[in-house]
Amino acid sequence: MDEFITVILLTLAATLRVATPLILCAMGGLFSERSGIIDVGLEGKMLMAAFFAAATSAVTGSAWLGVAAGIAAAEVMALLHGFACITHRGNQVVSGVAINILAAGLTVVLGTAWFARGGQTPTLETSGQRLLPIFFPNAGDNVLVYAALAAVPLTWWIIERTRFGLRLRAVGEMPLAVDAAGISVAWLRYRAVLLCGLFAGLAGAYLSIAQNASFVRDMTAGQGFIALAAVIFGKWRPFSAFGACLLFGLLDAVAIRMQGVRVPGIGEVPVQLIQALPYLLTMFLLAGFIGRAVAPKAVGVPYEKEH
Amino acid sequence: MGVHQRIVLDFPAGYGFAGIAVALMGRSHPLGIVLASLLFGALQQGGAELAFDIPTITREMVVVIQGLVILFSGALVHLPRPWLQLLLSKRVS
């Protein structure tokens, strides 16, 4: 019985560890999408943040400087996205794809040029260069895990209970009304995109200096897209998106635990099948069980002031 | 089947995503998509050959350039509009 409880606890801890970057990223995506800016570039922002966080931490020896550098890198990408989508009313999906491709290439090019290790950063030392667990040494509960847990109610409060949040929602539904009220659509959307960069930066920093001990090429491995799926799955609401992230995290943790384990009656379940589950779940649940996911009305539509 | 004669693990290697970019850069017009996909094909193949010929140019640099091309010709198409308008209106007058 004790063993059973240990397994459950270990799986839950693993769930939280895996879900943390998803939660942070999803909250970022939520801000952006609620303001009417599609963010396919979450993945790229996270990758850039992961690289700059690990590189800065390796060079300066300070994990906190690493986190700051990660956020800064993600913000630069976010500003680029905003510049293309808000200021120049470009296509948001194309801009997102461009950021993803740019990040995938740039991180490896810079990594090879600076550290000459085929795109990897040097392995970070345990003390000082990485964020360490606070209470339970084996559970990996570092600051960013708690930050992710705090980010969910914070996001909810900002979006649902503040004046800024009200305007943010309005600008995602009907920018014309916001503009008519004399509030700048562009500035609101820029703030949303910057918030998105902040969260994506934290998520990226978590990947490279908390969960792992170095940056590895393409280390985000589609987690930005899973976070985006979680936002849609959670119908653009913070707590639902949080639940979706935990679900995806749980499936991932189970997938790792199920490797080579024989399930009675079925036999060995292929790991790939369990890894495919989050995507299958999103498809099936969205298609039939959860009901329609209603996106913010103005999402993806650049706002053009009438002259 | 035509290229590899077998299925290779992860063989699409980002083709799907490049496909989205191609479709959007071609302005969702069949002819535009043909042109855009030719551009991407040229970038990919040209990049591979450059990386083969000149060792200091890595495949990732090609990826960076692809990203920049998508960024500037896809997402920032409206960037030069004010200057072009100025230029064209000057010509007319």
Question: Can I get a quick summary?
Answer:
The complex is a heterodimer of chains A (307) and B (93). With 307 residues, chain A is mainly alpha-helical.
How would you portray this structure in words?
The complex is a heterodimer of chains A (307) and B (93). Chain A has 307 residues and is an all-alpha fold. Chain A has helices at 2-34, 42-60, 63-87, 92-115, 143-161, 163-173, 175-180, 185-211, 223-233, 238-257, 271-289; strands spanning 262-263, 267-268. In chain A, strands 1-2 form a two-stranded antiparallel ribbon. In chain A, helix 1 crosses helix 5 and helix 6 (163-173) packs across helix 8. The longest helix of chain A is centred in the N-terminal third of the chain and has 33 residues, at 2-34. The mean pLDDT of chain A is 83. Chain B has 93 residues and is mostly helical. Chain B has helices at 15-25, 30-53, 59-75, 81-92. Chain B is extended. Chain B is built from four helices and no strands. In chain B, helix 1 packs across helix 2 and helix 2 runs antiparallel to helix 3 (59-75). The A-B interface holds A 80, 83-85, 88-95, 97-106, 108-109, 112, 119 and B 14, 17-18, 20-21, 24-25, 58, 60-68, 70-71, 74-79.
Most extensive interface between two protein chains, with residue counts: A-B, 26 and 25 residues
Mean pLDDT of chain A: 83
> Distance between the terminal alpha carbons of chain A, to the nearest Å?
72 Å
Secondary structure class of chain A reads: mainly alpha
Query: Could you tell me the mean pLDDT of chain B?
Result: 73
Number of β-strand runs of chain B: 0
Q: How would you characterize the largest beta sheet of chain A?
A: 2 strands, antiparallel
Radius of gyration of chain A (CA) equals 20 Å
Beta-strand fraction estimate of chain A: under 5%
The spatial strand order of the largest sheet of chain A comes to 1-2
Q: How many helices of chain A in DSSP terms?
A: 11
The sequence of SSEs of chain B as H and E is HHHH
Shape of chain B: extended
Largest sheet of chain B: none
